[in-house]
Amino acid sequence: MGRPAAVRAQGITKCFGDVVALDGVDLDVAPGQIHGLAGPNGAGKTTLLGLLLGLALPDDGSLEILGTPVKRALAAPDGVAGFVDGPGLYPSLTARQNLAALAALRGGARTAGIDDVLGEVGLTDVADDRVRGFSLGMRQRLGLAAALLTRPRLLVLDEPANGLDPAGKKHVHGVLTRLADQGATVVLSSHRMDDLEALCSEVTIVATGRVVFTGPLAKLSAESGELDYRLRTSDPEAARRLAAGVPRLRIAEDSGTRPDAEVLVVCGPVPALDELVVRLVREGVAVRELAPVVSPLEAAFLALTEQRETSR
Ligand SMILES: Nc1ncnc2c1ncn2[C@@H]1O[C@H](COP(=O)(O)OP(=O)(O)OP(=O)(O)O)[C@@H](O)[C@H]1O
User: Fold this and answer.
1) What is the CATH number of domain 228-293?
2) CATH class for the domain made up of 7-222
3) How far, in Å, is the centroid of ligand 1 from the Cα of 108?
4) Which atom of ligand 1 is nearest to the CA of 49?
């Protein structure tokens, strides 16, 4: 028999007074997967991650973590680590002292070496500096080190890339990918679809407390529908005239009201775009740029979440 799902949530509902933060959420995360959670502000991502960390209990629905049903008592499920709303750290202690304090709190529980996890997240050089002077990105890395200290089988991270510079992000992505390669499961939230694309095999999108998509990223891209494309050519006027003549191709109204505007935004099915390129080249107009205004993933995200907003 294979390993049980790392997360199996069914019909999860969570309210804060009159606010329905989660409204019948289903979530399945296979072991060893890096699963992304995306959604507009206030969609319910942090609330959901908090439930996985045992910081709160659902009002309704069933939740199984690493094969064990979550009981009606607040406690971090065994094998789970991570943070929501930023890592909890002691500012007056050094990075190393923070981790030592956490290891001591865990008593006899299994922990990784403090130096090992500091090295893994790239904080060895500042291990003896006080956290008070750490940047947001350094705190995020230390939060990750604190979670790694427990050798988690499920790592839950709320916007772990927040505040990280590109090199820091790459480093953290490497840590998470290695962890998943070793069999651990990661569930993380992000507002950046490009980050999720770089890291995750599957994503779940929530909007106003409901799941509007869950599945592989390739399936999400396919939901993007027709995209807007930026077109830059050597002859903007000719491009506008030719684009207007291609069946099923639309020129976005807000793009280039001037006939000689350098960039034209066009929208239509791929064969219509192909036809436009053929006509441009035939007339000797060079195509300098033809690219989606937003990526297919971003477009799908916007379409799905806007649909949900307008259907409320
Ligand atoms: N402790 C709380 N008390 C009252 N309302 C809450 C509490 N926590 C969350 N909410 C509400 O629940 C909804 C979901 O919030 P949540 O923080 O889960 O969203 P989110 O998707 O993480 O948002 P963001 O992207 O802005 O971090 C929001 O309307 C929020 O105001």
Assistant:
1) 3.30.70
2) alpha beta
3) 35
4) 18
Residue nearest to atom 25 of ligand 1 (CA): 41
Establish whether residue 45 lines the binding site of ligand 1, counting it when its CB lies within 6 angstroms of any ligand atom.
yes
Which residues belong to CATH 3.40.50.300 in the chain?
Answer: 7-222
At residue 262, does pLDDT exceed 60?
yes
Ranges for all domains in the chain classified under CATH 3.30.70 = 228-293
Q: What is the percentage of the chain residues whose pLDDT exceeds 70?
A: 92
Q: Mind listing the pLDDT tens digit for each residue in 85-141?
A: 888 889 999 999 999 988 888 765 556 689 999 999 999 999 999 999 999 889 999
Q: Tell me the CA–centroid distance for residue 173 and ligand 1, in Å.
A: 26
For 176-205, how does the pLDDT look when each residue is reduced to its tens digit (9 = 90+)? 999 999 999 999 999 988 899 989 999 999
Total-model pTM: 0.85
ipTM for the predicted complex: 0.97
**Residues 6 or more apart in contact with residue 224 via CB below 8 angstroms:** 296, 297, 299, 300, 303
If one residue of 12, 19, 309 were mutated to test the ligand 1 pocket, choosing by the most ligand atoms within 8 A of its CB, it would be 19
Q: Which residue has the tokens 């960390």?
A: 53
The finding on whether 179 has its CB within 6 A of some atom of ligand 1 is no
Q: Ligand 1 centre and the CA of 44: distance in Å?
A: 6
